[in-house]
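Researcher: Sequence of Solute carrier family 35 member F4 follows. Predict its structure.
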Amino acid sequence: LFLKVIWGFLIILSVSSSWVGTTQIVKITYKNFYCPFFMTWFSTNWNIMFFPVYYSGHLATAQEKQSPIKKFRECSRIFGEDGLTLKLFLKRTAPFSILWTLTNYLYLLALKKLTATDVSALFCCNKAFVFLLSWIVLKDRFMGVRIVAAIMAITGIVMMAYADNFHADSIIGVAFAVGSASTSALYKVLFKMFLGSANFGEAAHFFSTLGFFNLIFISFTPIILYFTKVEHWSSFSALPWGCLCGMAGLWLAFNILVNVGVVLTYPILISIGTVLSVPGNAAVDLLKQEVIFNVVRLAATIIICIGFLLMLLPEEWDEITLRFINNLKEKKSEDRADDLTESSVHLRSRSRANGTVSIPLA
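Model: Prediction complete. Tokens:
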């Protein structure tokens, strides 16, 4: 348990710092280079390295080592008993690849219009959207506290737009960030619906497959955008390769850490690490003097974060709370009974010392 908590603390710091780092590098890149779709495509290609990283870990830690092909086939069971076929590759990977690209592309578009703090706070609304979609699509248990959290998320979104007096750029930025949170929620719900829960190896296989799909089938989009001069650059040598590789590397690290964290520690700590990226981005933005926190913006950020944390409450949270309160009451009554017994014994010893005898009533 102690080891799990230590790992959890380290994972929280790593998840939070990798997400803050990714977001801030995007903001730095935008100063000289603004091609959000190319950046999305480039960073998604790095997902191909997920399975090799997982297999390296398997070689380093496993007692019974398996060949790469055998391990790959074992992990491909996430697609079904027959493993990964061409039909399943297209059928299962295509919708998730589109949702993945949309989520990241909208997130990058939002970062052009809003500060890193605002975008990371708005993205936290995806927890509320996951609950609403799971409740409607997967028929998950209705929870009043999560409805409250969803309302808080929506309130925070409106307040965030109001923070800049409903300025055009602000509204567009909020729409992009909320769109990113929505597609992320849809991705998670559909993953649970069609693929169920995946272990670390299966997740690594799926992410690498997603990367291959992106490289093979999505590559035509940045090419079209380049030749239509929508996203154009003078030469490949002029590209900010340091920033692009830093962003893609941290994005890959974030996804690996999220999946490793579920294995090594408690899933709730991963979510806490994600929400801590909001104050992390706020601290960086304040140091860079890129954000001025007015009361409305601060209140909106706090409301969204509280809503996010409410979403982390377990389904039986009310029963657990009642059990905890009852245990406390029982402990207090036991302590009181012990105190009364001690005081009565003390009185008897005093009465005997004074030569008096107490006669019990029938």
